[in-house]
């Protein structure tokens, strides 16, 4: 194969038909704060684990809404539950509880 | 729906295309990519249809390629365009036909801007006089060269020696039509069929016996996008655009792509080579690609021109399978001979694309 110095970029297409409504309803039931995140990124900015490996609650919530559940779980894999994100969240979300809930709902097959 | 009402709505999507007497302006990049297309246009309109198409060697680029690459300001472009229009008036013409879709879009944009801002028009008028000593003029009719071929499509069909038909099966060729974005996406009223139902190429395909392929990404950009291609770091986006279109059209097994823009046939053609050589994927039958031709080349094929005189050897994707389907006679030995019979040299063979 020839290397031209550029190539196909990964598709950013989002197929919302794959969005799992049942799991999202289950998540919102146990964690209503999932709805009020405004994706400001404060949680990601202060994340201790995020300094070393890719960790982002903001991205995880976006990924769930964009039907990329596996990617959402990957974004939270390195979380140590230190709680710094809950201290800076402008919407007052209990982020540790939200992260645990996301893992609980979306890890279940 | 009431038939008369439908006809009335459709009439709003039409544009006035004068019958004759045009000032023709070439495209700067098209002459490098597919040099015989413009020569074929002039030969068909002048010699086969007997129309008065005038061109002068004094015209320049419209400046569109620099404008869309953000390298020159709009007022400079407008002065260049004013000079083109002034040359038209100087030679006694008032109908302006351009070969390039980007030029067409830019001319429309400039005329609309002058209409909205008369003080800017006055400034450009002054710039033109100061820089070139030419009288400012505006065309009465501005059209794209594909509009003219569309208008004459039935006359071309009457002179055709063959149709867009697979002679082995008797079935019409499946043709993908790709309209340049600057044709009617910017100013829908300036294109035949507007932005919603662009009909300029569909009309040609129907008149010449082909079958239209309607696929999901039909109106997606070819991937040129100017800076997306010119800057190497962005080139992957250009390639991915084209890839998206081909993935979408592949299940419909098209025989041919017909385009009316300088950039579109180039990128739909060359990126097939890049996709094949970097990923191994080809979109035609048996490892071939899908030929992406200009409307003049397709008109030339149905009218019986020699494929090598039409410059079909300048395409990366081999056109021989298409020529065989249409029963076009050609001499493979003459493929890379110049007009003077001199051997131009064949390109190195591709590893994946036949």
Q: Could you walk me through the main structural features you see in this protein, from its secondary elements to its overall organization?
A:
The complex is a heterodimer of chains A (about 110) and B (about 350). Chain A has about 110 residues and is mostly helical. Helices cover about 45% and strands about 0% of the residues of chain A. Chain A has a domain at about 35-105. Chain A is globular, with a radius of gyration of 16 Å. Chain B has about 350 residues and is of the alpha/beta class. Chain B is about 45% helix and about 10% strand. Chain B has 16 helices and 8 strands. Chain B has a 4-stranded parallel sheet. In chain B, strands 6-5-7-8 form a 4-stranded parallel sheet, with helices on both faces. The longest helix of chain B has 17 residues, at about 75-90. The interface of A and B includes residues 1, 3, 5, 6 and 7 of A.
Q: C-alpha Rg of chain B, in Å?
A: 21 Å
Q: Can you count the helices of chain A?
A: 6
- The fraction of residues assigned to DSSP E strands of chain A is under 5%
- Helical segment count of chain B: 16
The overall pLDDT average of chain B reads 93
From the helix content, strand content and strand pairing of chain B, which structural class follows? alpha/beta
Q: N-to-C terminal Cα separation of chain B, in Å?
A: 49 Å
Main interface: chain pair and counts: A-B, 10 and 16 residues
Strand composition percent of chain B: 5-15%
Number of E strands of chain B: 8
Classify the secondary structure makeup of chain A into a structural class.
mainly alpha
Mean pLDDT of chain A equals: 92
Give a count of the beta strands of chain A, DSSP E runs of length 2 or more. 0
Q: Share of helix among residues of chain B?
A: 40-55%
Radius of gyration of chain A: 16 Å
Which parts of chain A are unreliable, with pLDDT below 50 for 5 consecutive residues or more? Answer: none
Strand order of the largest sheet of chain B: 2-1-3-4
Helical residue percent of chain A?
Answer: 40-55%
Low-confidence stretches of chain B: none
Q: How does the major sheet of chain B shape up?
A: 4 strands, parallel
Largest sheet of chain A: none
